[in-house]
């Protein structure tokens, strides 16, 4: 073969041209990038003319030209160094200068590599040379990403993470549940000693009055162990939170400091065997007896017991949710502090507790069943912020409407629902970190021409299964941080929208976390099945997050109802006519006809446009809202009772709730990204946002196709872009999981 020689100013572009034409990646937008680079480069006009000839989409280079380019690359003897910030730029410059190293990067080449997103996995199979690989490019700083995520909580979180290095938090496989529970209790008391449990309480009770910071501590605890996280949450968040949010100063003064110090152990007795999500229907009664000025707690039937109560085997006191009966009238569900054990740990008279036994996970949490038989407590034990019994035995409440009173009471506890979503997300982050770091060292398969097997992280299928959920984790982190802040700053009359958001996000994120952890388990093969490598432990612990603090399928429907009523009626109201009055006024809101040009638009600029993403999410939410409302109205016109009409659209409402959570998450993420000061980080986060948006649109491609929102060609283009972004993020994948800020001690496993 005749040897072709080129000048250095042309030679430096040869690897780029070879990669692009070999993989047929050239598109109009990419030609534009290449042309701009050539035009701004300080090379000769003759060189520019030659290069422009080779980027003509109408006339691709001859096969013999491609072969000559390949020979130049192969004969150079140079190694492509994947750990370089710009691997192909570095290689091309060394090729042109016939040098083994380069000090600076050519800006024209760097511009192409960045804007075309060319990454090593695009060209591994094209270069007949040995490639030095590294786990990740060091272009972005994991520390800066972590700092960005911690936000204003950084001082507290950093100090807390240092605390997690204590040997008391070392990972152990403890099979005996009693031993495991006692170990977790010791850990909880260890943290309480330094004030971490009381952070959401006011200064007078050992805290800093900061619920968002408490939530950040809670999510970081999940990096240690799920049982510790939940036991911590039950003691300080549910039990202590019920005293703080449902009680008044007399309760705060008497119980909060002791609770925050873990000197008073408590539990949150809401759920019953026959009534889980339907709190309003609990059967336990709390009857005021005027003669003794006491409230008597009673479990009316064998299956009306409190069920699955965390801390039930260790607690001295319980916040019991029961039907409050005063002067023969049922005033609805209220919370009453009830002592269930004495200081020596003996059960109080009339209290019966049974162990729930071994579970799929969280066996360090002492879940139990509780029955009450004629258990009397002082009248003052009624948590009386929203309903009280005066000394004359009369019931009073600042909220006259019983429905509003009930949902206002539950609304004060929605912070726990947000914390559950944060904890589940941390479980997914930890599993992703282990799976990614394993994939960056595990090799499998190769071609006949290569001695070294390929890293499994370099396979496109592996990138899709791990990098997509990494992007989602970043999006979900930001929306939950915003939500907990909004909740902490909200007033009682402005919490309806927050409750809807919390319901939708808790369901969506805990579902996502479970799916992600399973994907990580599979991505680690047989090693991922060993408990010592922590993923099975995380999997067992996070599984239940889809159920407690509200069953996901129920919650997502409650969110859908909140959307339908535009937050103008009581959240979770049983008065379906309130919903119908609202949606009846909206049925004339016709959706705009889709422009055919839009449905077929596939260029890169459009697919990466945040306005396209926002519009796609909004269209899906609006369309589903409109169609649910239309169906319900149609059933009502046929004489079907409103309750039954809503049952008929349950699956439709689930779709609506999910669509709403996706739109909410993306919009909040965009707001977060706009505030990032550093340009490089903002560029990275925008790419993560694009991956989230395009992944979700691709996931719902069938729906968008059914409604004519996108064409088949556009659907294919979106799918390809998802794959492309994953490959572009591949060099930074280790930095991205390190950006979660998980302490190294929490990731210490035999697999890594």
UniProtKB/TrEMBL annotation:
Annotated Acyl-CoA oxidase C-alpha1 domain residues: 411-563
Keyword Lipid metabolism: yes
Essential cofactor(s): FAD
Acyl-CoA oxidase C-terminal domain boundaries: 613-751
EC number: 1.3.3.6
Localization (cell): Peroxisome
Chief place where the protein resides: other
UniProt cross-references to InterPro entries, sorted A to Z: ACOX_C_alpha1, Acyl-CoA_Oxase/DH_mid-dom, Acyl-CoA_Oxase/DH_mid-dom_sf, Acyl-CoA_oxidase, Acyl-CoA_oxidase_C, AcylCo_DH-like_C, AcylCoA_DH/ox_N, AcylCoA_DH/ox_N_sf
GO biological process, alphabetically ordered: fatty acid beta-oxidation using acyl-CoA oxidase; lipid homeostasis
Keyword field contains Transit peptide: no
Occurrences of domain Acyl-CoA dehydrogenase/oxidase N-terminal (ranges): 175-258
Domain Acyl-CoA oxidase/dehydrogenase middle residue range list: 267-375
Family: Belongs to the acyl-CoA oxidase family.
Official protein name in the record: acyl-CoA oxidase
């Amino acid at each position: 073969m005749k040897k072709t020689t080129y000048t250095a100013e042309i030679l430096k572009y040869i690897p780029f041209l070879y990669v692009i034409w070999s993989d047929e990646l050239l598109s109009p937008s990419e030609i534009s990038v290449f042309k701009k680079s050539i035009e701004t480069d300080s090379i000769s006009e003759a060189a520019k003319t030659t290069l422009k000839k080779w980027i003509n989409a109408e006339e691709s280079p001859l096969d013999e030209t491609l072969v000559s380019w390949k020979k130049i690359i192969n004969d150079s003897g140079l190694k492509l160094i994947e750990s370089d910030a710009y691997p192909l730029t570095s290689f091309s410059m060394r090729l042109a200068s016939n040098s083994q190293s380069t000090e600076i990067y050519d800006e024209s080449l760097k511009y192409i590599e960045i804007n075309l997103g060319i990454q090593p996995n695009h060209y591994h199979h094209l270069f007949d040379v040995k490639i030095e690989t590294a786990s990740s490019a060091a272009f972005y700083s994991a520390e800066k990403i972590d700092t960005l995520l911690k936000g204003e909580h950084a001082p507290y979180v950093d100090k807390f993470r240092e605390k997690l290095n204590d040997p008391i938090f070392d990972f152990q496989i403890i099979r005996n549940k009693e031993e495991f529970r006692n170990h977790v209790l010791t850990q909880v008391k260890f943290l309480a000693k330094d004030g971490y449990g009381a952070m959401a309480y006011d200064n007078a009770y050992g805290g800093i009055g900061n619920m968002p910071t408490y939530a950040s501590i809670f999510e970081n605890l999940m990096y240690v162990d799920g049982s510790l996280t939940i036991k911590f949450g039950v003691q300080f968040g549910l039990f202590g939170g019920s005293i703080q949010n449902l009680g008044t100063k007399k309760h705060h003064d008497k119980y909060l400091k002791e609770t925050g110090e873990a000197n008073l152990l408590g539990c949150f007795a809401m759920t019953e065997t026959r009534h889980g999500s339907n709190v309003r229907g609990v059967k336990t009664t709390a009857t005021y007896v005027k003669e003794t000025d006491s409230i008597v707690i009673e479990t009316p039937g064998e299956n009306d017991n409190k069920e699955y109560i965390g801390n039930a085997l260790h607690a001295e006191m319980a916040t019991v949710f029961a039907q409050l009966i005063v002067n023969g009238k049922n005033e609805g569900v209220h919370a009453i502090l009830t002592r269930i054990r004495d200081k020596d740990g003996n059960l109080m008279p009339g209290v019966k507790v049974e162990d729930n036994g071994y579970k799929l996970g969280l066996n360090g949490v002492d879940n139990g069943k509780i029955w009450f038989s004629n258990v009397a407590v002082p009248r003052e034990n009624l948590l009386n912020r929203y309903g009280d019994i005066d000394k004359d035995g009369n019931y009073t409440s600042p909220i006259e409407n019983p429905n509003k009173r009930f949902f206002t009471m539950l609304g004060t506890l929605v912070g726990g629902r947000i914390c559950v979503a944060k904890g589940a997300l941390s479980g997914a982050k930890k599993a992703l970190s282990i799976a990614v770091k394993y994939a960056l060292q595990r090799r499998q398969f190769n071609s006949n021409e290569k001695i070294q097997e390929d890293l499994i992280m370099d396979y496109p299928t592996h990138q899709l299964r791990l990098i997509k959920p990494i992007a989602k984790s970043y999006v979900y982190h930001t929306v939950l941080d915003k939500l907990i802040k909004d909740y902490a700053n909200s007033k009682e009359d402005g919490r309806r929208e927050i409750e809807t958001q919390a319901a939708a996000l808790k369901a969506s994120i805990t579902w996502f976390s479970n799916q992600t952890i399973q994907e990580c388990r599979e991505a680690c093969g047989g090693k991922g099945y060993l408990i010592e490598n922590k993923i099975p432990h995380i999997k067992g612990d996070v599984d239940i997050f889809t159920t407690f603090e509200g069953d996901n399928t129920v919650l997502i429907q409650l969110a859908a109802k909140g959307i339908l009523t535009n937050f103008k009626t009581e959240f979770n109201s049983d008065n379906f006519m309130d919903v119908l009055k609202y949606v009846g006024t909206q049925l004339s809101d016709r959706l705009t006809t889709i422009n055919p040009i839009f449905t077929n638009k596939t260029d890169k600029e459009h697919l990466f446009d945040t306005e396209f993403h926002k519009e796609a999410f909004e269209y899906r939410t609006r369309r589903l809202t409109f169609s649910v409302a239309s169906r319900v109205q149609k059933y009502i016109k046929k004489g079907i009772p409103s309750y039954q009409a809503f049952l008929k659209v349950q699956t439709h409402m689930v779709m609506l709730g999910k669509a709403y959570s996706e739109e909410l998450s993306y919009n909040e993420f965009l707001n977060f990204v706009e505030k990032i000061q550093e340009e490089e980080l903002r560029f990275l986060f925008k790419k993560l946002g694009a991956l989230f948006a395009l992944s979700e649109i691709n996931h719902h491609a069938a729906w968008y196709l059914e409604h004519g929102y996108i064409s088949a060609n556009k659907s294919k283009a979106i799918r390809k872009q998802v794959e492309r972004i994953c490959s572009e993020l591949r060099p930074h994948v280790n930095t991205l999981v390190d950006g979660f800020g998980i302490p190294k001690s929490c990731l210490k496993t035999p697999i890594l």
